[in-house]
Amino acid sequence: MVHTDCPLPSSNPVTSSKNAPEVLIVEDEKLLRLMIAKLLQVSGYRVFMCRDSLQALELVEKKTFDLVITDLMTAGATGMDVLRATRKCQPRAKVIITTGTPSSQTLLEAKRQGAYAYLRKPFQLKQFLSILKDAIEHTRMWDGCQYQGGEGRGAREAERGLPEL
């Protein structure tokens, strides 16, 4: 289901599977936000959207996500703020930073803060979906390791370097 605004609407999800990965998209460009949401929706994800980082900051404190995709520069706060808040509130969630103006400084900062990936816009959809799938798999592996009694070998193997496109 695609939720177009934050906070969460009270409508029932269209996606019937309760196991569908839940993804938050934080993007101020409406067309890009809707395109990513539709792409993820048809790929089986439950999608929630925010048009700015302030909305996202409120939402990550209230709702659990498997993955957060955030633009680096949005109104109110930055994607780095969303990254830090998500890592603090939801350490299992993976965060992907997107930007039209990449720099080595923001790439290094994203890596230090625990971003799963740092993607330059425009990105190739096939690679984008592949990175999302990997991020969700790592989140699910983390869940499995926690279920089995802590961060064991599987969790350490699930962690990897920061992909960049």
Nutshell version of this structure?
This protein is α/β, with parallel strands linked by helices.
What's the layout of helices and strands?
Elements: E1 2-3, E2 22-26, H1 30-42, E3 46-50, H2 53-62, E4 67-71, H3 79-89, E5 94-99, H4 104-113, E6 117-120, H5 125-147, H6 153-158
Parallel strand pairs: 1-3, 2-3, 2-4, 4-5, 5-6
Helix pairs in contact: 2-3
Describe the fold and architecture.
This protein is an alpha/beta fold. The protein has one domain: 3-Layer(aba) Sandwich (Rossmann fold). 44% of the residues lie in helices and 16% in strands. It is built from 6 helices and 6 strands, in the order E-E-H-E-H-E-H-E-H-E-H-H. The chain has helices at 30-42, 53-62, 79-89, 104-113, 125-147, 153-158, and strands spanning 2-3, 22-26, 46-50, 67-71, 94-99, 117-120. The chain has a 6-stranded parallel β-sheet with strand order 1-3-2-4-5-6, with helices on both faces. Strand 2 (22-26), helix 1 (30-42) and strand 3 form a beta-alpha-beta unit. Helix 2 (53-62) runs parallel beside helix 3. The longest helix has 23 residues, at 125-147. 35% of the residues are buried. The model is unreliable at 4-16 and 150-161 (pLDDT under 50).
Strand count, sense and barrel status of the largest sheet are: 6 strands, parallel
| Main sheet: strand order | 1-3-2-4-5-6
Helix content: 40-55%
The quaternary structure here is single chain
The topology string of helices and strands comes to EEHEHEHEHEHH
Shape category:
globular
Query: What name does CATH use for the topology?
Result: Rossmann fold
Q: At the fourth CATH level, what is the homologous superfamily?
A: Response regulator
Q: Regarding CATH, which class?
A: Alpha Beta
Radius of gyration (Å): 15 Å
Helix tally equals 6
Number of separate domains: 1
- Per DSSP E runs of 2 or more residues, the count of β-strands stands at 6
**CATH hierarchy: architecture:** 3-Layer(aba) Sandwich
Low-pLDDT runs: 4-16, 150-161
Overall average pLDDT? 82
Question: Distance between termini?
Answer: 28 Å
- Fraction in beta strands: 15-25%
